[in-house]
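User: Here's a structure from my thesis project, written as structure tokens. My advisor, Dr. K., wants to see whether a designed sequence matches the one we expressed. Can you design one independently, without my sequence as a hint?
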């Protein structure tokens, strides 16, 4: 019984397809994003409260319906005071919303020619140094970085060269924002490519291929010198890359793990402990993992060049909540172990993971 337990705290069924869910920073509220059967966008704000008999429940505070279906959202570029939500939709629009008044967006740009599959933010919420920025990845093959203070055009655009095949970008993530000038973006693609873009030098720093479509990439922390990157894929696999040491030929050390017996849709690191992360499976399962570092993270190759050494992962706990994939998941930034997830069975679930402080 010393292991962490994953407990279902509250559950709610909705009448639209859920694609993403995010806690509203410094609150007991969260936002759920998706699309109605009539292809319009659904944005719902819920608050955790208790019913008269003392049971936890989700209270709907606000709902908005928009012309374009929502695919993804982030608060990462907003201040803790404003808590503005940036969204990507099926028509390629990136918009920023004030959740107190969702009639019109505060910012809107037609960022991509096709659906925005993934969005991430940095420079807000007191996380990551430097300017607030938003990154979007799209089916059109491009990855774009936006400054919400600058209208219309992106501050950086990573697109396939002319004549190159356009690969569907499924996931993007910020990292390495440990000072005012350094910042990286990682992107995962449908053909198994993982790319690491250095925004300071506007260059491709590293790339690899993991042979299966990359559903999610995430740095263990955004605001430190690059440490680890988790990439989840089709065919029941995820990979953990040690980003501290880059070998000129072999790149970064990695470990690969088979999990879920289905597509691994997401990997999300615990904000209070970067070595603990949850993976979300295509059969409605959640697996909680802990990464263990090796005794030595760096070794010399035969030419006396530094190369990284990958650690190991151990499965702490797992639970199956649904028969459908869990496509959205978010740890609460302040309450250790509290998390919200959304699945394609049109259910939102709030979970509590116990004993994480002891790990």
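Assistant: Designed independently from the structure alone:
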């Amino acid at each position: 019984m010393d292991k962490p337990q994953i407990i279902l705290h509250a559950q709610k069924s909705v009448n639209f397809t859920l694609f993403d869910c995010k806690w509203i920073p410094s609150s007991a509220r969260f936002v759920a994003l998706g699309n109605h059967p009539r292809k319009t966008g659904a944005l719902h704000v819920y608050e955790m409260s208790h019913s008269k008999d003392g049971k936890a429940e989700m209270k709907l505070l606000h709902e908005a319906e928009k012309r374009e279906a929502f695919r993804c959202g982030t608060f990462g570029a907003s201040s803790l005071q404003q808590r503005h939500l940036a969204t990507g939709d099926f028509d390629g629009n990136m918009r920023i919303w004030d959740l107190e008044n969702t009639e019109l967006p505060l910012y809107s740009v037609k960022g991509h020619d096709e659906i925005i599959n993934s969005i991430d933010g940095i420079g807000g919420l007191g996380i990551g140094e430097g300017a607030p920025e938003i990154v979007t990845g799209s089916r059109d093959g491009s990855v774009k970085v936006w400054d919400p203070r600058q209208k219309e055009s992106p501050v950086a655009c990573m697109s396939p060269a002319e004549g190159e095949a356009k690969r569907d970008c499924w996931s993007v993530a910020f990292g390495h924002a440990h000072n005012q000038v350094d910042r990286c973006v990682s992107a995962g693609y449908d053909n198994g490519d993982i790319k690491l873009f250095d925004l300071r030098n506007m260059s491709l720093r590293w790339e690899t291929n993991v042979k299966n479509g990359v559903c999610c990439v995430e740095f263990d922390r955004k605001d430190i010198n690059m440490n680890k990157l988790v990439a989840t894929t089709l065919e029941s696999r995820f990979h953990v890359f040690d980003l501290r040491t880059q070998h000129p030929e072999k790149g970064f050390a990695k470990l690969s793990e088979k999990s879920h017996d289905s597509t691994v849709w997401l990997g999300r690191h615990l904000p209070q402990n970067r070595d603990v992360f949850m993976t979300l499976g295509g059969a409605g399962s959640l697996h909680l993992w802990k990464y263990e570092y090796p005794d030595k993270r760096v070794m010399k190759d035969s030419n006396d060049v530094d190369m990284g050494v990958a650690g190991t992962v151990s499965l702490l706990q797992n639970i199956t909540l649904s028969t459908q994939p869990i496509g959205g998941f978010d740890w609460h930034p302040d309450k250790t172990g509290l998390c919200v997830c959304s699945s394609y069975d049109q259910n939102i679930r709030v979970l509590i993971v116990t004993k994480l402080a002891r790990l």
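When you compare it with your expressed construct, this may help: The chain has a mean pLDDT of 95.
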